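Appendix B, record 7
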Amino acid sequence: MAGSSATIVAGLTAAALTTVGFLALRASATAPAGPAEPRAEAAAAKAAPGRTRSLALPASSGVGERVVYALDGDRVWLVGPDSRVERTFAVTPGTVDPVPGSYAVTSRSSTATGTDGVPVEHVVRFTDVGDVVIGFSATTDGSMPVPDPESRTGGIRETPADGEAMWRFATIGQRIVVVR
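Structure tokens (predicted):
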């Protein structure tokens, strides 16, 4: 009887593995195409579980040309003068968030070292919280590391392509709207 039990268990295990494999294949075949910045999405999801991931421009972000940064969605929209979204992308936030409100770009640097010690490019700064400068940037190596929760960092990380788009769009004085 022991041989019979082992055969049954082996059969059930094989059937379960086959079912899981089939369901995984089916799910991957029907899943919508992923975003252009999968590493950014994955990092943002790990950094902020439970946050919403809406691609829609927040209604509370105002009108006219502006950069909109949604804290709860870890997403940015570059909005043209006609209030149309020109580009949207996911970001990986630092450990220190700006207070929701309206700001303006105060300084920019083509290259710098981030508050976490990582070399960055296309730095667009717009406020500070205490002694932490808050701004958008892309790492020079293209990585999107999730910041150490024990450190105080204000860099909102973008992919290199998104950093380039932000750099062209957000010149000194450009309005930055931070929403929850």
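Remarks on this record: The two ends are 63 Å apart (CA to CA). Confidence is low (pLDDT under 50) at residues 9-51.
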